[in-house]
Specification:
Helix content is 0%, strand content 33%. The protein is mostly beta strands. The chain has one domain.
Amino acid sequence: MKEAIITDLNGLYVEPTLVADSVTGVFVIQEYPKPEPNEDGTLPSPPIEDVELIDTGYTIAYVVPAGFYKAKVRRCGLRGSKGSV
């Protein structure tokens, strides 16, 4: 198992998830839309054939290049800063 990330439609991080080691790529996450309640307050039960799935985000499972996830601080940028570092 390896870690993949889930993003929303704008590409913003939502949460991590686990996928199989053989999974690589970007996959669309689709869900059924939330049904609107009827006038009497009950939820309708439409046939599944009539409902279109909507895209809600992406699962991204790529190998992170070595060194990409490690923070690198350039010391020359810290010399002129004031306050604690």
